[in-house]
Design brief:
Length: 388
């Protein structure tokens, strides 16, 4: 078998590059098929074992490296990747809930998580109930014998109430209920979830981890091995694969994430402070500002804030007027998501989204990017000037 024909040479080679290549980036391994040394190796391997490889879907050196790094960053032990933040949320629900169970969700939860809860209620015999995000240890009264999981989000990414996570976790632990946290706003940097009692951390890596507005990916991080194994089973059953190139992009974002987060935070607070002085704005919904429900909890539990906050306009402005304000922005683009370099503005109709909402004025959410704040403020100023 020494002399192979050209077509075979085009498909395979015995060449092996020399060992010992070392560089900073993690290598990008593309694979569906993973090659086994012999049949015994194939038979011996288990897809759950992170020390070996079985099939591209269950992990490559590239995905294992990102998982290990995310677990370290969050202060957890285990991590699983999913093709989006929402897929990570769905994986947690499907791993931990069965027919007859109940899941509790904050009334300000990320809206697709709420829609998922409604779907589980309508089609899967799982009850989703909603609670006041500021409920704290009052959650004890809602927990029933079939309550399995409590979702939390700190803070809610539109209305920005900061929940008392330690209080919720204390009660949940007493009653043997798991607590999952959507920790995307704090990026795993500003809030140390496991130290505050959370069992399961979910991250939309789409936001700060990537930082490029060019990747969709999610992660689930845990400390307890049995919990990890339950979620890993769902990861396998649901076929949650991620692309090697996307994984590389997220790995590439990690070294700058904290610096970017701090820059977003500085700019967002500067812009929120400026907006607070404007008569058109009634409330600043930014956890570092006293207007924001749960501000004292943020001060107690968080170390920083990132670039996302909302403003409530004075009720004298109609929706048509605040829509025009957004249309008139030039540097701020109109679009969902956040955590990237570009500033964004999105209107939200709170009356349609929430069971209870105390405010009259229009809500606009701002993602403050990495542009110079003087230019962002000038942009807001010209659009506010054309509001009336
Ligand atoms: C964006 C986001 C998600 C979902 O992430 P995708 O990758 O877009 O699916 C979940 N939770 C929060 C708070 C988010 O902002």
């Amino acid at each position: 078998m020494d002399k192979k024909h050209l077509q075979t040479l085009l498909t395979t080679t015995d060449y092996r590059p020399p060992d010992g290549f070392t560089a900073f980036p993690t290598a990008i391994h593309h694979a569906s098929t993973v090659i086994f040394k012999d049949v015994a190796a194939l038979r011996a391997r288990n897809w759950q074992d992170k020390n070996a490889y079985t099939y591209g879907l269950h992990g490559t050196p590239t995905t294992f490296t990102l998982e290990a790094r995310l677990a370290e960053i969050e202060g957890g032990t285990h991590c699983l990747l999913a093709p989006s933040g929402l897929a990570a949320i769905a994986m947690i629900d499907l791993a931990l809930l069965s027919t007859g169970d109940e899941v509790l969700l904050p009334d300000n939860v990320y809206n697709p998580n709420r829609e998922l809860g409604n779907w589980l209620s309508e089609s899967f015999g799982i009850t989703a109930r909603y609670y006041d995000p500021l409920i704290g240890e009052g959650i004890a009264e809602l927990i029933q014998s079939n309550t399995r999981l409590i979702w939390t989000e700190a803070p809610g990414s539109v209305s920005m109430e900061v929940p008392d996570i330690p209080a919720i976790c204390r009660v949940a632990k007493e009653k043997n209920v798991l607590v999952a946290l959507d920790n995307t706003w704090a990026a795993g940097l500003a809030f140390r979830a496991f130290d505050h009692g959370v069992d399961i951390v979910m991250q939309a890596l789409t936001k700060y981890h990537s930082g490029g507005s060019d990747v969709l990916m999610g992660a689930v991080i845990t400390r307890a091995k049995d919990l990890h194994q339950k979620i890993e089973r769902a990861h396998m059953r649901l076929g949650m694969g991620v692309s090697a190139d996307d994984t590389f992009l997220v790995l590439r974002g990690l070294p700058t994430m904290k610096l970017r987060f701090e820059a977003h935070d500085r700019s967002a607070r500067e812009i929120a402070t400026w907006l607070k002085s404007r008569s058109e704005i009634a409330h600043i919904l930014h956890p570092a500002f006293e207007d924001c429900p749960g501000h004292a909890t943020w001060k107690r539990d968080f170390t920083s804030a990132g670039g996302l906050f909302s403003v409530l306009f004075d009720p004298r402005f109609t929706e048509a007027q605040t829509d025009r304000f957004i249309d008139n922005l030039k540097l701020f683009k109109i679009g969902y998501s956040w955590g990237g370099a570009n500033s964004l503005a999105v209107p939200y109709c709170m009356a349609a989204m929430r069971k209870q909402w105390p405010h009259q004025g229009q809500l606009v959410r701002l993602n403050i990017g990495l542009e110079d704040t003087r230019d962002l403020i000038a942009d807001l100023e010209q659009a506010l000037a054309r509001l009336a």
